[in-house]
What we know:
By secondary structure, this protein is an alpha+beta fold. Among the domains are: about 70-185, Butyryl-Coa Dehydrogenase, subunit A, domain 1 (Orthogonal Bundle), CATH 1.10.540; about 185-310, Butyryl-CoA Dehydrogenase, subunit A, domain 2; about 465-645, Butyryl-CoA Dehydrogenase, subunit A, domain 3 (Up-down Bundle); about 685-725, no CATH class. It is about 55% helix and about 10% strand. It has helices at about 1-25, 35-40, 45-50, 55-60, 70-85, 90-95, 100-110, 130-140, 145-150, 155-165, 165-180, 310-320, 325-345, 360-385, 390-415, 420, 430-440, 445-460, 465-475, 480-510, 525-545, 555-580, 590-610, 615-625, 640-650, 655-660, 670-685, 685-695, 700-705, 710-725, and strands at about 185, 205-210, 215-230, 235-245, 255-265, 270, 285-295, 350, 350-355. The strands form two sheets. Strands 1, 2, 3, 4, 5, 6 and 7 form a seven-stranded mixed beta sheet that branches. The chain has a two-stranded antiparallel ribbon with strand order 8-9. It starts with a helix and ends in a 21-residue tail after the last helix.
Amino acid sequence: MGQIAVLLKTMRRSLLTRPIYNWARAALPPMSDTERDAIETGDVWLDAALFSGNPDWDAALKIPPASLREEEKTFIAGPVQTLCAMLDDWKANWETGDLPKEVWDFIAAQKFFGIIIPKQYGGLGFSAFAHSEIVRTISTRSIVGAVTVMVPNSLGPGELLMQFGTEDQRVHWLPRLADGREIPCFALTSPAAGSDAASIPDRGVVFRDARRDNRLSIRLNWNKRYITLAPVATVMGMAFKLHDPDRLIGDSDDLGITLALVPTDLAGIDIGRRHLPSMQMFQNGPTQGHGVIIPLDDIIGGQKMAGQGWKMLMSALAAGRGISLPSLSAAGAAFAARTTGAYARVREQFNVPIGKFEGVQRRLARMAATAYTLDAGRRLTCAGLDQGHKSAVISAIMKAHATARMRDAVNDAMDVHAGKAVIDGPHNYLGNLYRAIPVGITVEGANILTRNLIIFGQGAIRCHPYLLREMRALTDDSSHGLETFDEAFWRHVGHVIATLFRACSRSWTGGRFAPAPDSGKATRYYRQLGRYAACFAFASDLALLTLGGALKRKEMLSARFGDVLSELYLLFAALKRWHDEGQLESDLPVLEFAMASGFATIEERFDEIIDNFPNRPTAWLLRFIVQPRGRRRRGPSDVLALRCADLLQTPGELRDRLTGDLYLGRRDDGVARLERAFALTTEAEPIRRKLRKASIADVMAALQQGVITAAEAEALKAAQDAVGLAIAVDDFSAAEFTPSRGGRESTA
């Protein structure tokens, strides 16, 4: 029997596989080294399970939730809270143009720049979740402070040294970075190379330096911009293209993108000028280098890593991009939800809290679900990172969708607050967050690029069960190429057939029989996610089969596939959060709103994919399999929206859990005033009901008639006074009014 099986396999390979193999090799679109490095960087995790079309939800629910160690809790309760109390974005942005010296000193002394650096090198050695929690807390107090802390712990010299540095480099640099003796920045973006970072024109040339005993050195020239911390940095991580015209270290002139450490006190470095990113006064600016000479040994990882810079960057980004901006975004969404719920409760129009108007309630409900979902995604991603997974696809999902959804949440908050959030001043707690949103949308991979090209474009190859193996086999010129392709291809065929039947059966039955864990009222949601995952997997394979390399150029189609994948991940994250927190009945309205919104988005994207699919017979097949009865999901009901809106306007454990771990302000700032007004207003509500029942509007009249007691009258007055302070806006005298910090020379 074994010999017969071998014979049949040989015949299949010769008669069927070889023609397909030859055709596929000819049809395979060219792939640049940078594309290949990006695709093969990092690993796969839940993204691969979703691409399989048949995720094992029970296994996914067993992923240990992200958690903090005692020392991490102590740090967040101590130094983080102290730092938040020291920060003041109004002063930093409009008065001083920088963080005070005592804040810089405190950041250094408490090792905020060494959050991720291991203890053996003098850092705090905290987990990804602790890193995320620290950034999240600071973000609710100060964008300037949060960016200052998070950048050295994200894509920067520290992360790169830990992953790729030589031991000598780690021993020298990491302790100095951890305790703030060195302030790092990472210089990647050039005026002519933004999203297309691989095309940076900055150049380094290998030569023997006669002034330094003919040591192998690099002469660098660069022109960079948008570099956070550059104006105050003492050491730069520098990305450049390395050339070796005399073949001193390699067999080629063009060695490729290389990363090196460059102290900023070297001759030829121009540093110190500043950009003003959306009027956020974190240190950010351009830098130029002219004939800057560094030892060859300053390449991160040493000479052997020359030309490996792009792969190093992609690996570092796969981790850092999943923490910093998603943490800031989750904080912004939660902050917007909490403050807007409180404001809607205390602010009255027509003698009614504005939170009773349905237009406002719809915004509140959406903010509640956004805050819940983003924090769920943040926690799940950190759990994966702390397990050692570095999924570039999931990091891209979190960066793009967290920042975009934060923008929606803050826009909703601005609309509800209206004039309160429009008038700037030290008591406006939303205006600065609103101004800062484009920064998050733009950096670490602009959202348009990330959504249209990376999430699905990279995921389709990296996360597919067989596609990457097939592509590697097609570029293998050895005798093993055909053998590897044969095995992967026919497994792929079997996968497509299984996915076809799975997608068809689940779609036509509404997902009723899709596998799901026993999760009570949430079981039906797992079934729907299983249905959509199967449809996504089948539609992806069909698109890859019929469009091939052309799919790479169909950015709008790719973006819609990416949106489906992103929704699947974030919706599972919300379900896992509900599971991990004990399947609380009180949280169900927010979970249900998130599910209804996500399912409507998924069906809308499938509808758009089918309507715009270039191959119309394929589109008809997709319609029959994926949406046989058309788009059925239309989003959350009005009744559900009202229930969710009430949660943000009602004090209690659920509201605190939904918007918890935020820095809620100093005694007299805008957030603290609002929190006090909300607490006093809700406490006084039973007293106000007495007045309404007696049809008396005047407090003194109610007191005189014995409807309320003197203590109750005092409580009403305290609430009214607190509301007056909470809804007040800032104004300035003519002498105080300084609308800008202009007058500086500009090169623009």
